[in-house]
Amino acid sequence: MIEAVGLTxxxxxxxxxxxxxxxxxxxxxxxxxxxxxxxxxTTMRMVLGLDRPTAGHVTINGLPFRELPNAQRHVGALxxxxxxxxxxxxxxxxxxxxxxxxxxxxRVDEVLAVVGLQDAGRQRTKGFSLGMGQxxxxxxxxxxxxxxxxxxxxxxxxxxxxxxWVRNLxxxxxxxxxxxxxxxxxxxxxxxxxxxxxxxxxxxLLADMSTQEFITHNSAGFARVRVADTDPDGRETFAEALRxxxxxxxxxxxxxxxxxxxxxxxxxxxxxxxGLRLWELSPHRASLEEAYMRMTRSSVEYTSTEDPRAQLxxxxxxxxxxxxxxxxxxxxxxxxxxxxxxxxxxxxxLMPGEPGELAASVQNNPEASR
Length: 370
What we know:
This protein is an alpha/beta fold and 370 residues long. The protein has helices at residues 40-47, 71-74, 90-101, 106-114, 130-142, 160-175, 187-193, 211-217, 234-244, 264-273, 288-296, 355-364, and strands at 2-11, 14-24, 29-33, 55-60, 75-78, 148-152, 179-183, 196-201, 204-210, 222-227, 248-251, 257-260, 278-284. Helix 3 packs across helix 4 and helix 8 packs across helix 11 (288-296).
């Protein structure tokens, strides 16, 4: 189990983590969510003893990471898929860590097979793709068969098959009674993988609850209702009947009605009583992404605006307004505008300053006027 109590980390005047307290329990996949800059990576680094807290403390199975005997056997982590020597072969990278931790050599080949890199063990890691680096990082975390595992963006760079494999791996590890702590920005994956969520914003705890509770508490459910188009006035009539029964009704852009405050059976009864046919009556089930955006919208540090594209496209220096006719006489090139010289006669290309110089250049080089 991972337990943080009053965990705080300051970098100069900036507080990255602020009085953070939580528990990550075994037997569950716990998702660690938060906007960029919210302090997730700093928190994970403090769990692993890579950063010292300014205040508070964090323990793994009751001990700080630095006090764990042979920590590689207790804790496995993937924080940076590229944190390895590029000149080493994949198998050599794992073997060096195994030897430092007293792990048998055969375990290296086992984890290479688990992550699907058994045929890439002799390749140097500098040639690995991002997805291969992720797999090797996961293999490193699994090397000591630890009971506590931390993963920071483990599916980054993986293809759909790899993402499914990681999802199943996380759930399998949790089913074995291990503590699995996963940070990710992919809400769709967290909804399918995590049983429990810890959400932070600007270094502070925003939520610590099951995934389903989080969605329920931070989203608004409603019913989508579509009245048959054969009754032109039916939608307005039905909307009024719903409001009289205590519902809140909004019209969506596609013509459907968004109804809150009434259960689906009651909506169906009102339609039947009014003699209306419904083409759609469906519950809206909020997604984790919707709930997460609602929860963290005030904690986002980096927000974007529309690109005004100001002065992106400059006017063509020779272009004329649409309402102005082009002169019949040839236009003299403006100063600083370069036109190509006539073929085969580079000497005829001058950079004239006055119209007279241009005429003289043409007179001296008859080919230039053709």
